[in-house]
Description:
Blueprint: E1 2-9, E2 18-25, E3 30-34, H1 41-49, E4 56-61, E5 64-65, H2 71-77, E6 78-81, H3 93-98, H4 114-126, H5 142-155, E7 160-164, H6 172-189, E8 192-196, H7 200-206, E9 209-214, E10 217-222, H8 224-227, H9 230-237, E11 241-245, E12 252-256, E13 273-277, E14 281-294, E15 301-312, H10 322-332, E16 340-345, E17 353-358, E18 363-370, E19 375-376, E20 394-401, E21 403-404, H11 406-426, E22 440-441, E23 445-450, E24 456-457, H12 465-493
Parallel strand pairs: 3-8, 3-9, 6-7, 7-8, 15-16, 20-23, 21-24
Antiparallel strand pairs: 1-2, 1-4, 4-5, 9-10, 11-12, 13-14, 14-15, 14-23, 17-18, 18-20, 19-22
Amino acid sequence: MLEVNHLQFEYSQEKPILKDVSFSVKRGEMIGILGPNGSGKTTLLKLISGTLGGSKGDISLDGKEIKEYTRKELGRKMAVLPQKLEGLFEYTVHETVSLGRYAHQHGLFSFWTEQDEAVVQDVMEKTCVIHLAKRTLVNLSGGERQRVFLAQALAQEPELLLLDEPTNHLDIAHQIQLFNLLKKWTEETEITVVAIFHDLNIASMYCDRLLMLHHGEIVVDDKPQNALDEKLLNRVYDVNVQRQAHLSLPKPVITFVPAAKTTEAPLCFADLFTVEKSKEIISVQVAQPLKTLSSALVGDGFVWVANFVNRHVSSFYECSDPKEEMQQFLQSQGWSSQECVGMMTAASLEDVIIKTYEDIDFSVKVMITVGISNAVDAASSIEHLDEVHTQGAVNIWIFIQGHLTEAAFVQLMMVATETKTKAFMQEGVIDSKTGTAATGTYTDSIAIAATQTHEHFSYGGSITGIGKVVGYLVYEGTREGIQRASKKIRGLKC
Length: 494
């Protein structure tokens, strides 16, 4: 639909603003234009819209050069929402939006039709400004004016919509509402959207393609999964960014990392922890939040937390929503569930096993509680489908003074799981249902927490130094915990 070929532009023989820019946009696509200030984004949009001339190269819309369209013809094809919105502040919202129908008026004496009014009412409703219809622009907030001018652009019923930072002045709710609307329109009416973004994550979520400018040149033109590359973003924006997967969509999420502040020397590893133990709770408070990968009831996934809670419950504990009940319990004890990793076990907390390794390069502390009353062979767990399970649980906390990549976190979780399983087999724990060697219990949990300081670990597998230490401590700790739990079970049988 839109073709830009070998576009070049400069102001008064100055340094070129755009250098040999070429790209195309298909009908129904939503394209995001990214780049730092001064990279040429707004200039490019002005050239496409025809509001700026003097460029070299070609810009065509539906096979016809932009400069060959009359102003009214172009108004029926294209609508523009500029970055700075000025004037018309004495007009009402209805009057302002109605101006978008100008391109559709015909003849010397133009008449307002029912179709015109229907379009205006529809776009005012969809942009959530219909309740402001009789108010003047001067009495609106910046975000409300932004939505009014968007409604005016949509009232043109354009085939191509050009937006220069459309989320200016909009709160997060209206940003999402706006792009949900635009995405729906591109799918249903095949309207084409070309928009300038500063918010990389909004662009990632909604755009089909991202075009990034740097010093007036296109450095990438690709789908978000490929365009938002960490190294490229670090180079183009000259900041430290990290890329992660969106939790719900197959799209990347970009986080900006501020410069590290100068602080006092980090605490000794042993001094980081405050441990409190009772029959009901083991809690660990850490002097600084740790990056944590956890399978816990509360605080699962990757989180940053400074509080770790292991709670004792009855072996016959039952609850329809254990996560909600655990959150309420934590809050009743003065902990925010947003700042905690919370686990529960029927194992005796008095028998917690604590193992520590300290070295110049890195340090590790492992805390393990072991219950074996619901020991199971995971390979044969399908045999237990119809059973009601009692609580047991092996809960493992691994604290590391070191910097782990996400791969290292996952690999260490594998090492800990493998060595826990080896300990169960070594101690001869049996799945009572199948008579085979147990590999753990039904409700085991694990948390790996790192300071993200000191030694950097790209990997954490069993061949690495950190993997060997974690594997050894978890294996020995689990064996010792099983031995204590077995003694208690034998004592009860006697």
